[in-house]
Amino acid sequence: MPRPWSDHPPTAADRARYADAEPRPFWTATLPPRDPLPPLEGVVEADLCIVGGGFTGLWAALAARERDPGREVVLLEAETVAFGASGRNGGFVSSSLTHGVENGLARFGDEMETLERLGLASFDGLVADVERHGIACDLERTGEISVALEPHEEAWLAESAQLLRRFGHDVELLDGEAIRAEVASPTYRGGLWDRTGSAIVDPAKLADGLREAAQRLGVRVCERTPALGLEAARGSGPVVVRVPGGAVRARRVLLATGASPPLLRRVRAWVLPVYDYVLVTEPLTEAQWAAVGWRRRQGLADMGNQFHYYRPTADGRILFGGYDAVYRFGGPMGPHLDEHEPTFARLSQHFAATFPQLADVRFTHRWGGAIDTCSRFSVFFGTAHGGRVAYALGYTGLGVGATRWGARVALDLLDGRDTEATRLRYVRRKPVPFPPEPLRTAVVQLTRNRLAAADEREGRRGLWLRTLDRLGLGFDS
C-alpha cells in the first residue's frame, strides 16, 4: 500500500507554507541573546581540554569538575555552544544507547540487558541533573509514540511492544481508534506508546543550561575558538591543541566533535556527516489544537525506514522533521547546505497529509544540519596517543540522551577507570569503517534507495538490505 504522499509530488501550496520561514533553528533563534564568550588567546595549561561545545563536550565538562573539583578544564567551541547538532535536533530524549532495542540486539545481543539498564540509569541521571542545576529546558516526560501508517507496520508494533516489555518498559499498544484519540491523523493505523526512558526537551535551552552549570563549577568555556590541530609527543607529555590565537597544553584531551572533521585522521573512516532537515509551524490556535488533540504531548515518529519525527513545543507549535537523510559526495559541511528545498517541500507535503486539518498552517522556521552517523548507528569510543586522547562519536540522531552516558564513558577511558561500561564489548569495539570515495557515496545512496523501496513493498527487504543484515550492518528504524 503506498504511503499517503508517495504518488504525488509537492505542490506550489506545499512550498508556500514555508516560503517566509526563518532559515535558522527555532531552538537557538528563541534563546535569550548573549554575547559570545571570549575566544582563547595565548598558550594555557589544563588538566583536560575538551574539543566541542555540544552535548558530549558539555556533559563531559560538568562530570569532570564534579568528579575532581580541582581539575582544570578548558572547553573549546568553534562557534557558540549548541551551534551544531545539539541545537538543531528535534529535542527527543531517549534512554536508548543503541538507537533502539532492535538495533542493539542485532549487534550486541549478549550485552543488551546491561546496556538498557545503564541507559535507563543515565536517563534518570539526566533528569536529576536538570533539576539539580536548575536548568529551565522545558523537559516533559510524556513518552514517545511510534505510529503505524500501513498494515504491515501494525505487526512491527506488536513485536516492538513484546521486546520493550522484555526489557522492563511500560508500553501500551494502541489500535487505530485509540491512537487517533491521542493524536488525530487519518493516516494512523496503530501506535505504541513507550512511557519509559523518553521525554521531550528544548535542546538549545538544555545546552545553554549545561554551559552555565559548567561555568559555575569553574570550567573555562571558549567560544569562537576552532581547534586547528592536535600534537602529542611520544611518552607521557602534554597534548597540544592548536587554536588560531594560541594553544592548550593539556594532560588529557576529549574529542567531542560530532559530525565535524575529527582531529584524528583514523576516525574519518568511521563517521559520516548526514544532513537532516526540520520545519516548525507558527503557534497553533486553541481551535487548531482541539482539531489535533495531542493533549498528552508525546513525541511521535512513524515506522517507515524513511521516517518522520514530530512533537509539540512549549509555546504551542509543531516541529516536523526527518524523512530524508542527505549525504553528499565527500561529506562536505557548511552553512550553504543547511537549506534543501526538495526536502522542505516534501516535509511540508507530508505534514499536510498527516494533519489535513492543519493544511493552512504556515511554518516560521526551517533549517538543516549534519548528524554524525556510523555503521552501527550508535555512539562508539576510542583512545589515541597512549590513552591521552579519547573520543565519543557517531550517535546518529539519538544523542540528546545518550551523550550524557557517552561523555562519562569517554572520561572513564581518559582516567583509566575500570568500570562496568568500559568492560563492555560495545565500548571496546569499533564500528565497521565506511569505504573510501567514490565507493562510499555509492554504498550510501544504494542503501537509501533500497530502504525507500522496502517502504513501498510492505517492508520487504531486498537482496542488498538482507546482505547488510547478515553482515551486521543493517538498520531498522
How is this structure best summarized?
This protein is of the alpha/beta class and 477 residues long. The protein has helices spanning 12-16, 26-29, 55-67, 101-108, 112-132, 151-166, 176-182, 203-216, 286-292, 341-354, 399-415, 425-428, 439-456, 463-470; strands at residues 42-51, 73-76, 92-94, 144-148, 171-175, 190-194, 198-200, 220-222, 229-232, 239-243, 246-255, 272-281, 299-302, 308-312, 318-322, 363-373, 380-384, 389-393. The chain contains 14 helices and 18 strands.
| Beta strands, count | 18
State mean pLDDT (0 to 100 scale): 94
In terms of per-residue confidence, which ranges show pLDDT below 50 for 5 or more consecutive residues? none
Alpha carbon gap, first and last residue: 19 Å
**Content-based structural category:** alpha/beta
Silhouette: globular
Write the layout of secondary structure elements.
Blueprint (H helix, E strand, L loop, with lengths): L11 H5 L9 H4 L12 E10 L3 H13 L5 E4 L15 E3 L6 H8 L3 H21 L11 E5 L2 H16 L4 E5 H7 L7 E5 L3 E3 L2 H14 L3 E3 L6 E4 L6 E5 L2 E10 L16 E10 L4 H7 L6 E4 L5 E5 L5 E5 L18 H14 L8 E11 L6 E5 L4 E5 L5 H17 L9 H4 L10 H18 L6 H8 L7
Parallel strand pairs: 1-2, 1-11, 2-8, 4-13, 11-18
Antiparallel strand pairs: 3-7, 4-6, 5-6, 9-10, 10-11, 12-15, 12-16, 13-14, 14-15, 17-18
Helix pairs in contact: 3-8, 3-11, 5-11
